[in-house]
Amino acid sequence: MNIRPRRNRKSSAIRHMVEETKLGVENLIYPIFLKDGKNIKEEVSSLPNNFRWSIDKLLPEIEECMNLGIHTFDIFPAVEESLKDQVASYSYASDNFYLEAIRQIKARFPESVVMSDVAMDPYSSDGHDGLVIDGKIVNDETLPILAKMSIAQAQAGVDIIGPSDMMDGRVSVIREALDGAGFSDVSIMSYTAKYASAFYGPFRDALNSAPKSGDKKTYQMNPANRREALLEAQLDFEEGADMLMVKPALCYLDIIHVLKEQFPIPITAYNVSGECAMVHAAAQNGWLNYDLAVYEMLLSIRRAGADGILTYFAKDFAQMLRK
Ligand code: PBG
Predict the structure, then answer these.
(1) Active site residues
(2) For residue 172, is pLDDT > 90?
(3) Which of 83, 150, 197, 243 could serve as 189's disulfide partner, Cβ 3.0–4.6 Å?
(4) What is the atom index within ligand 1 of the atom nearest the CA of 273?
(5) What class does CATH assign to 22-322?
(6) Measured from the CB, is residue 164 less than 6 Å from ligand 1?
């Protein structure tokens, strides 16, 4: 044998030297759940080690994460049922606790990067990402609501808008609205290939945002489709998205890979709640090693081509690196 691949694996130093994929805290975006009130830190029962925070408790948590090297946060609001309505009007209300929290985070940590979610579901009495009229999720009537929500978030100081709704044409409507309101520096990371997935369960528990009727299959993508992701990506790219996201991550590594090859802008992936919950459940049973499984999962998402990864493992991973 004159070719022996094992020679390049013979010591830790050599293995590190020839490592093709690097994974660091700088690649991670930490999704965090926010709740109105004071002194709240409630664990999400289906998502161990993840909490609904009130802003007073969240600020020190963000400081801790920043000290661990995590600088980017995606904040999601858990909204009281009584504040929800058909048109998601609370999403841009002047006394919205989510917008107030974004203002406080940016004031206290100007060097942090705050990303927000744009979709109607946390504020909608129907629990859908778009407006429901006569049982249908209507596209074009949803767009102005998303635009208003985006401007309110930009006014609060958000750095990156994350439209997660999957309505057609929303990136250009949001881009135009932001530019028109003087926010041409605010970025858009669009949920480009967002699949109708079984892995969003714990997230919907965290926000109590599950659809009240029906499912999301008329707007989120069919998991069977790959070429359709190219169409979605092309539209979002042409409409002015700064980064394209694939969601979920692990069952869709091929989609991450193909978007990375075909589009000249950063690709991100959302390692969603259900993917995180599976690892916790198995680790709690002693069926796999939590730290090793987390590292291998995140590495695989990077290897597939993701520049950034939204992951509930962000803080644990940052702490692991310190060990
Ligand atoms: C809502 C939204 C969802 C997630 C992010 N934004 C859920 C959904 O579409 O029902 C899921 C994130 C996760 O599961 O971690 N627009």
Answers:
(1) 194, 247
(2) yes
(3) 243
(4) 15
(5) alpha beta
(6) yes
C-alpha of residue 204 to centroid of ligand 1, in Å: 7
In the chain the beta strands, taken as DSSP E runs, fall at: 28-35, 41-44, 47-53, 72-78, 113-118, 131-133, 136-138, 160-163, 187-194, 243-247, 267-271, 308-311
Question: Which among 129, 142, 150 is the best mutation to test ligand 1's pocket, defined by most ligand atoms within 8 Å of the CB?
Answer: 129
Between the alpha carbon of residue 39 and those of residues 42, 46, 60, 72, the distances in Å are 10, 21, 12, 23
Longest CA–CA span in the chain (Å) reads 72
- CA pair distance 314, 294, nearest whole angstrom: 10
Q: To the nearest whole number, what is the mean pLDDT of the chain?
A: 97
Cα(201) to centroid of ligand 1, in Å?
Answer: 9
Q: In the prediction, which pLDDT does 313 show?
A: 98
At 56-107, the pLDDT tens digits run: 999 999 999 999 999 999 999 999 999 999 999 999 999 999 999 999 999 9
Residue 200 near ligand 1, beta carbon < 6 Å = yes
pLDDT bin (cut points 50, 70, 90) of residue 267 is very high
* pTM score: 0.96
**pLDDT surpassing 90 at residue 323:** no
CA of 313 to the centre of ligand 1 (A): 16
Per domain, the residue ranges of the chain are 22-322
